[in-house]
Amino acid sequence: MNRLQANLVLLLAGAMWGMGFVAQSTAMDAITPFFFTGLRFLLATLVILPFALREARNAPVKLQKTNWLAFAWIGLLLFSASSVQQIGLLTTTVTNAGFLTGLYVVLVPLFAVILFRTFPHPVVWPSAITAMAGIWLLSGGALTAFSVGDWLNVAAAAFCALQLIFIGRSAAPTGRPVTLAVTQFAVCGTIGLAVAIAIEPINWMAVWLALPEILYAGIFSGGAAFTLQVVGQRYTTAPQAAIFLSSEAVFAGLFGALLLGERLPASGFLGCGLIFAAILAVEVLPAVLSRRSTLTP
Q1: Using one digit for the tens of pLDDT, what is the confidence trace for 6-19?
Q2: pLDDT per residue over 123-142, tens digit each?
Q3: What would the DSSP string read from start to end of 178-245?
């Protein structure tokens, strides 16, 4: 897989996540957040497990203990991001949640520099800022007064950024992206269900009421999209991946209009344009500048 194909894979993951925002929001009308998180990621585990087993049979070398620990750590980050985002949706709007979670676009290169002294291609910084401006416009150009849910979505953005960085450091060296994905799903789902049993009222009728959302969030925005993210990140950098995945805000707006009757203002369409401009800049400019430097005598 080349870098262009990897970035298109990440774009598809962003589309699935955009649709997932609608499912996550409507599911909260029937089911509690930790119970929903546990069920969706245990379902994702079951869906992707056969592909992970096939990958393991074809793998040239076995994974080491350190690899499994790294995969489990990524699963803990996924649980942290998913659960606080899900709780945040109880007390904030989908618009605010979409914008604030999108902060990971800027946090990924920032955390990469702070934690590992890894500096991205210079084009990533203006592209990240452009994508953030696009997400801001997509939210209507204004946020209501910050609630607890808003701050939880800021925390979710930080956990998403860390997850992206550590996937980037684990997926390519091990050559086992599907195994990584299944491991993070299993860790996230197990912790989510355990916390739900401990602190939430378990209502099995709620599972039936939220079944369409659970199925979509588990199979598509959970299992398929996160697996595509891990596979795509083997062939691109974490900062570039963050830019492409930020397209989820565009798709969330699109699916919100189609399924919930929401309508984008003119600023929202401008925001979509800025996000896609950032995506194109990250994809095209490094190749153009590299070719120009090669041709320069």
Answers
A1: 888 888 888 888 88
A2: 878 888 887 787 777 766 66
A3: HHHHHHHHHHHHHHHHHHHHHHS---HHHHHHTHHHHHIIIIIIIIIHHHHHHHHTTSS-HHHHHHHH
Q: Which of 104, 145, 131, 99 is nearest to 253 (CA)?
A: 99
Left (φ > 0), alpha (ψ -120 to 50) or beta: where does 261 sit?
Answer: left
Question: What is residue 122's DSSP assignment?
Answer: T
What is the Cα–Cα distance from 297 to 292, expressed in whole angstroms?
Answer: 10
Residue 206 CB contacts under 8 Å (≥ 6 apart), including other chains: 30, 31, 32, 35
The Cα–Cα gap between 94 and 100 comes to 10
Q: Please state, as a whole number, how many other Cβ atoms lie within 10 Å of the Cβ of residue 267.
A: 15
Distance in angstroms (rounded) separating the CA atoms of residues 138 and 249: 8
CB-CB contact of 158 with 47 (8 Å): no
Q: What share of the chain is helix, strand, coil (3-state, %, to 5)?
A: 80, 0, 20
Q: Which residues of 27-47 are buried (b: 16+ CB within 10 A; e: fewer)?
A: bbebbbbbbbbbbbbbbbbeb
What domain range is 256 assigned to? 3-295
Distance of CA 187 to the CA centre of its chain: 16
Domain count, the chain: 1
Residue 235 and residue 1 in contact, taking contact as beta carbons nearer than 8 Å:
yes
Strands (E), the chain: none
pTM attached to this predicted model: 0.80
> Using one digit for the tens of pLDDT, what is the confidence trace for 223-254?
888 788 888 887 877 777 877 887 777 787 77
CB-based contact 149:85 (threshold 8 Å):
no
